[in-house]
Amino acid sequence: MSGTQTQRAAVRFGTRGSLLARTQSGQVADAFAAATGREVELVEIRTEGDASSAPLASMGGAGVFVGALREALLEGRVDVAVHSLKDLPTAPAEGLQVAAVPPREDPRDVLVARDGMTLGELPVGSVVGTGSPRRVSQIHALGLGLELVGVRGNVDTRINKVASGELDGVVLAHAGLSRLGRAPEATELLDPIQVLPAPGQGALAVECRADDPLAEELRTHLDDPRTRAAVTAERAVLAGLEAGCSAPVGALAEVVEGEDGEELWVRAVALSHDGAVAVRRSGSGPTQDAGRVGHDLATEMLGEGAAELMQDDETGPHGHPTPSEAVT
Ligand SMILES: NCc1[nH]cc(CCC(=O)O)c1CC(=O)O
């Protein structure tokens, strides 16, 4: 490598400590290094969400995963933070900016089940693990008679519960499996017509300090405007519904080729916790109006009673508390 590169300090990428976090942060850092020739370094930041196995809802929801990284960024201990976009609160962070949203992975959820089974093939009464209220309510809505139980922990831990026979299946994000090279273990890719992913699922946010000239470089080399438009619309739905990351809300936006160029299509669902009632809507508009398209969709859904649905009694149909500990 040439001498000029070593004269500049390495760009420090902050990451959570899980294998998935380190893998995705490493992939972003490597892409940045390859595009710019700059030196990069991964710095592991321990978060409250990783240190504790308490229900996430009791720690302030998904925000616990990003708080420590953001602190490290603001204090100058790292230059860049890579987050799973769906774990990022919709409110902007003071002093920080999302400099880039790289091209998205497959946003869908997947099932990893015993004996290669799909949701429809699992016998009535089968036990499926997922801690996400969004997944619980949408799977309940399919009326398959599956029992849903909360699981937390990393991808490995969750999949192992199927291998060990403790669970008949687990539902997780395809993106997580795929970044770890384990996508072939999925036994079904869940069709968004039945199970809409979490807003931002499969996408990453590359964050840096608001006043850092590094932002321009990150954007130029890592940002994918189509992914950014899609997740902007999805997160506008979530924000418009005034729902948190653990609410039973799914949203998926795609950029499609319309008659007058690119157009954004958004589908969204808000459900009661038991999945018995849902408001499902879609909308479209120009890609450059992504935020408005998502917000208008949320307004329409609120008019159909989406807010009341989600505030339902949080107990499932059999009086069991619906797991609300996991972010999805
Ligand atoms: N819930 C935590 C979380 N945050 C991001 C991912 C997966 C990667 C992504 O969606 O980008 C996961 C795991 C999962 O939902 O299975």
Automatic annotation (TrEMBL):
Instruction: Give me the comment on cofactor binding.
Output: Binds 1 dipyrromethane group covalently.
Pfam families the UniProt entry points to: Porphobil_deam, Porphobil_deamC
Where is the segment annotated Disordered? 302-328
NCBIfam families from the UniProt entry: hemC
EC numbers, comma separated: 2.5.1.61
- Gene Ontology CC annotation, any one: cytoplasm
The protein's name in its UniProt record: Porphobilinogen deaminase
Q: Return the InterPro entries for the record.
A: HemC, Porphobilin_deaminase_cofac_BS, Porphobilin_deaminase_N, Porphobilinogen_deaminase_C, Porphobilinogen_deaminase_C_sf
Q: Which residues carry this modification: S-(dipyrrolylmethanemethyl)cysteine?
A: 245
